[in-house]
Amino acid sequence: KAGVTQTPRYLIKTRGQQVTLSCSPISGHRSVSWYQQTPGQGLQFLFEYFSETQRNKGNFPGRFSGRQFSNSRSEMNVSTLELGDSALYLCASSLYPGSFETAFFGQGTRLTVV
Amino acid sequence: DQQVKQNSPSLSVQEGRISILNCDYTNSMFDYFLWYKKYPAEGPTFLISISSIKDKNEDGRFTVFLNKSAKHLSLHIVPSQPGDSAVYFCAARGQGGSEKLVFGKGTKLTVNP
Question: Which residue in A4, A44, A102 is closest to B43 by CB distance?
Answer without folding.
Answer: A4
